[in-house]
Amino acid sequence: MNIIHVEEEVKEESIHYPRMSLKDLVYYFVIVAVLFFLFMWIGNWGNYLEPVSPISTSIGDLYKVTFILAGIIFSLFEGAIVYFIIKFWDRGRGR
User: Fold this and answer.
1) Where is 52: in which H helix or E strand?
2) What is the percent of the chain with per-residue pLDDT over 70, rounded to a whole number?
3) How far apart are CA 29 and CA 79, in angstroms?
4) Per-residue pLDDT at 37
5) Which of 63, 70, 62 lies closest to 39, judged by CA?
6) Is residue 81 part of a domain?
7) How confident is the model at residue 70 (pLDDT cuts 50, 70, 90)?
8) Percent of the chain at pLDDT above 90?
9) How big is the CA angle at 45 (ends 47 and 59), to the nearest 5 degrees?
10) Residue 63 lies in a domain
């Protein structure tokens, strides 16, 4: 059994998953954007406290970066959860 034959078998057996439509992508990114905006708004845009020393300014900058990265990760995962709940919600219509 040579390598070419094995690759052909894998290609024939591979599963093709449907891709998201443009409308679904737009819905997902709108949900993510809204969640990110709410996260930032509730968190006062990452402004924790007013800096009173040079060290606290550095700490505040690190806090903002961490806060924004956490907001991006939160928005992506929570957006996926909300999108899938809406997309695959059983509305009682049967198959």
Assistant:
1) none
2) 80
3) 8
4) 96
5) 70
6) yes
7) very high
8) 42
9) 35
10) yes
pLDDT level of residue 38 (50, 70, 90 thresholds): very high
User: Is 4 inside a domain boundary?
Assistant: no
Cα distances (angstroms) measured from residue 27 to each of 18, 20, 44, 82, 85: 17, 11, 26, 10, 12
Q: What is the domain range of residue 26?
A: 22-87
**Dist CA 89 CA 86 (whole Å):** 5
* Amino acid letter, residue 70: A
The token duo for 57 is: 């300014």
3-state secondary structure 13-36: HCCCCCCCCHHHHHHHHHHHHHHH
Phi/psi of residue 17, nearest 5 degrees: -85, 145
Q: How far is 92 from 6, CA to CA, in rounded Å?
A: 45
How many structural domains compose the chain?
A: 1
User: pTM for this structure?
Assistant: 0.70
